[in-house]
UniProtKB/TrEMBL annotation:
Coiled coil: none annotated. The chain crosses the membrane at residues 465-493, 514-532, 590-608, 615-634, 672-689, 696-719, 725-748, 760-781, 926-946. It holds the Pfam family Glyco_tranf_2_3. This is Glycosyltransferase family 2 protein. It comes from Nocardioides cremeus.
Amino acid sequence: MSGSGRGAVAALVVSHDGARWLPVVIDALRSQTRAPDHVVAVDTGSRDESADLLDAAFGPVVPAPASTGYPEAVRRGVAELGPEVEWLWLLHDDSTPDAGALEALLAAADEHPEADILGPKLREWPSLRRLLEVGVTISGTGRRETGLERGEYDQGQHDEVRRVLAVNTAGMLVRRRVLEDLGGLDDRLPVFGNDIDLGWRAAAAGHTTLVVPQAVVFHAEAAHRGVRRTALTGRHTHFQERRAALFTLLVNVRSRALPLQVVRLVLGTVLRVLGFLLVRSVGEALDELAALLSLGGSAGDVRRARRERRARATAAPQEVRRLLAPPWLPYRHGLDAVSDLASALTDQAADVAERRRAAAAERDPTAYAARTGTRRAVAEDDEDEDVPEDSSFVARFLTDPVAVVLSVVVLALLVATRAGLGQAVGGALAPVPDSVGAWWGLHLETWHPLGQGTAVPAPAYLLPLALLATLLGGSPGAAVTAVLLLAAPLALWGAWRLLRVAGRLASVRGAPRWLLVWGSVSYALVPLTSGAWGEGRIGPVVTTALLPWAAHAALGFADPVPDRRWRAAWRLGLLLALLTAFTPTAWPVAVLLVAVVVTVVVLVLPGAARDRSTWLPPLTALAVPLALLAPWWVGSLRRGAAEALLLDPGRLPAAEPSGLQLLAGRLTDTGAPGWLGLVLVALALLALVPRTTRAAVLLVWVVALVAVLVALALSLVRLELSVGAAAPGVAAPLAVLVGALVTAVVLGGVGAREVAARPLLVGLGVVAAVVPVLGLGWAVLADDRLGDELAADVPAYMVQRSELGPEHGILVLRGDVTGGLEHTVRRGDGTTLGEDEVLALSGEDADLTATVRELVSAPTSDTVARLGELGIEHVVLPAPADGDVAAGLDAAGGLVQASAADPGTRAWQVDEPLSTQALESGTSPLHVVLLVLQGVTLVVVLVLCAPTRERRRRR
């Protein structure tokens, strides 16, 4: 027996590949002011000299296999002790106790005889001053809570002996009898979480756990930090920790609270997965999900563990509850996570700015020093001015002409696009459906009940529109309105960013702000001046808005750091997928541009071909759209609708600009005067004159020529559709061409600023100002076709009937016998945005065509019966109805005349059974696989595009 009538104290050290820490741990044990009466060492299959060190210090070591968990190792060590041992002092091979640690723990045990488990204050090893734990508990989300701030140093602020839920097994002093009565540490928690579980079980059984801050143990946390990997932890430490936390909560929570706890953990896991993905911690996100799924497959272990704990629980539930973390704590951690994400974004922006400053200083140190010195002097002068603090922002804004002009331009752009407010429809823009579910259904379905049914996939742009509409509250109209209103301001912003970087690449002084204003405004007007906006062609509008952002991302390929080149690849791939979704010809343009750039780089720098990080990121960016848009392009090829890969969105006929119109940046005759665009071409040619920027301008002209070549190649192609011939879309080449011309002018202006005389610069500036000023004025005053939707020629009651199901179709016959008749079948609420492309690409239904031919020539009762079998309930002949066709339909058996609101319109109802299976079809497994691929790729690409949060761990 030891002093004060207390039984013996045995130190139990468990080791696994801990030779790097054990010499210090052994010395610390030997230097204790109150030495343990016994020391037992257990080694779990160490491959280093750990067992030899322990054997030399304390005698024979208890061996155990490498797969032995910590609870089993402790059990083996206790089995070696005699009955005189009352207290067990548990130590890890990476935990070094201070010289007075054991003495302080035993003194607290004498002072608090009710205590059965005592633990020290843990400080970080090797820093020695940073606090790790002063007692520990767990929150309702499974987070290990220490009550400490991040990186908090020990200044004696937590030196009060107090009751806690649990203490770490690194330095835990526990009564042997209590440990055995509780069944020891749980073998189902082999590495992590067994300390909290033991403390929770002890509290439920009426035992007391105290933290004794006067006892100090320094802990390296080798397993938690990933410094040491074992067969039990593997490479996924976070998985093991999270699984242990979930298990601890589920087996110890009260039965009444278990269902709510399960729901909370499932929802919390989903949120944590999303949070980790936002900061590109993919491994931790997968570990979170895997931990939840793994625990779901171990329901039997959870039930058995709960029965064991109920059998030993004697304390009132409120006694344990007050030792748990407060319920509001997880919400504070959520705010911290948002703060971490904001910090990651801020750090990334600061990193980009720092790299730009460093690049500028490297290119021209003298000019950079002069420029920054001048700015510093101006800033110091500004500090001496007496400007009211509350009006500084307004004062700076009103005294900055560039800011004022840009604000006026944005307001003018919003006025020019005012027709996009509300339910925009007209021209090439079809009406939107009533709910976003129609878009999701069209995207996910293998077979669409349109016309006589079709398997042609939904257009690729429908997915981003559906996502946007979902974010805006499920309103498709709000999504289209947002696109139409924000496209031009977004293009303005993107062009400003791109041109500013391009100007700095051309000259260390960069482009003057007024030149940036000219370039960004001129480019932002392209959706309007080209005629695309007024015609309701949403594809060119979106492409023009996204193109400068994609070009800015592509500049990341010139970054010297491979990781940044890869991040640029994922961002460009995502933007290129969006561009291709709205204008499919954007992908071949990008392929040609990448081929040209990579070829030039390899010719100029032959060694670059051997560096995969030089050419592989651009190729990856080209491959991303193929994976993201696989359901669309694979389905189009399978269903004989390859024309979809070349058509721009919108109703047919597509725009067919002439060569001169294309050069002037015009898609249709409804655009701004063509000579405004030709002024831009002339200015881009003059940009070749300044010698200092000629090389950069020539490179931009190469991009423009690639766009011209693609447009010429597309002009030679005719697409034969069931509704007639159509021309491929040229919106993507046109946007690239105009963007290249604007960039050339800006770069030429940077060069001319340094060499040209001032009067010449003023004259050229006046000529150049004509492009944005007149273009903006035209955009504000011009008329557009939005809102010019044709009046409905189908009676309203028939439309209501058609919405009851696909079998209530409406056959609409237009034209006359002399000029030819056209037939369409309307189902549901009519042809909405996205459905018009599907119908145009669907092949002709031979059965329906033959039936209609018989119906208008020599209708019989069998012909009318086939209409019912085809799911057609009504036949409509809009005004002016052909008298011969109407007379034949009047005489047809099985057709009953129906009312029509327009006197010139004739209508009939099919008085035959309607087939409910005419448009039914199965699901394509390949389409389902492609949708899954699309979803997984989208998540992966979004994660890889996100800012990185690096977790640096001391080793």
